[in-house]
Amino acid sequence: MRIGVLTSGGDCPGLNAVIRGAVLKGTAVHGQEFLGIRDGWRGLVEGDVHPLTRHDVRGLSKQGGTVLGTSRTNPFDGPHGGPENIRATMDRLGMDAVIAIGGEGTLAAAKRLTDAGLNIVGVPKTIDNDLDATDYSFGFDTAVEIATEAIDRLRTTGDSHRRCMVVEVMGRHVGWIALHSGMAAGAHAILMPEQPQSIDQIVKWVESANNRGRAPIVVVSEGFTLDTMETAHSEKGLDAFNRPRLGGIADVLAPIIEERTGIETRATVLGHIQRGGVPSAYDRVLATRLGMAAIDSAVAEQWGTMIALRGTELVHVPFQEALGGLKTVPQDRYDEAAILFG
Ligand code: F6P
């Protein structure tokens, strides 16, 4: 069997470990051959591939990014896109199946292609940890480590200047990175999309920390919004919240907090630093296991399934179920963290 491997969507620490795990198991145990598909679906649509041998993947598990490249190309677009063209390209390349490593968009495209008869297995990837079908996704642990270290560093400079530090972490739709890094680093407030808050509440947490002589640390997910009542009746200073902006939410919150509390406040947006560099040991192991499990799926011809982590076990779930929804931070996890605020 000759298997193509692609990485699609935003990059994520651990992608190379998945590729390595798949190629090493596939070649050693099943005598399979591999083709690396360049830049996600683009490479599959255009037939842009190269051989991927055991030699090529040696030492890859600690390397950040993806050696295959990635893109957000939609495989249904363009003159060579769509299932019939892709099937013809795969036939020409002698490619029997594809391992698609990606997030929700990638898996949705993989589902449509599988429904049209192509042989695809999926491996979930998101640093946001927001795929409901899997308990954890690789990349998340690394992102939390990076964010936690950054917050620890911001604390010492904040303490020195008696400043409030607002730290923006990734998480467009969910607050997992904010929750875990904020808890780990002892934040005085954690703000996330699932829990809109008022400025009054944020100010209370900041002032409470400040009154105890601590430099207040506010961790905020990029997708956080103020509670709707407050945004609708925006008071002085909140107009900025509703304006189109270049910076992130931290850049909006910092001046409002400073104005309301009189505490000098600085904003830091961590951005893509959270996705770069070497994966954590946990992510390397999880990613390697996922790559190997994808080979098991291919051998069993379980096309149209994604590997998911349930507890410590890897299971195969149909794409339909894998695309079942966002894994948001549950109320009890937020309430538990909130006991530590202020
Ligand atoms: O979904 C992963 C993620 O890292 C989000 O947390 C973030 O909003 C987004 O990707 C950034 O995407 P891009 O790399 O395209 O700017």
From TrEMBL:
Biological processes, Gene Ontology terms: canonical glycolysis; fructose 1,6-bisphosphate metabolic process; fructose 6-phosphate metabolic process
UniProt region (Disordered), positions on chain: 60-82
HAMAP family: Phosphofructokinase_III (MF_01976)
Residues that bind ATP: G10, R72, T73, G103, E104, G105, T106
SUPFAM superfamilies attached to this UniProt entry: Phosphofructokinase (SSF53784)
Stated name of the protein: ATP-dependent 6-phosphofructokinase
The UniProt record lists the keyword ATP-binding: yes
Source species, domain of life: Bacteria
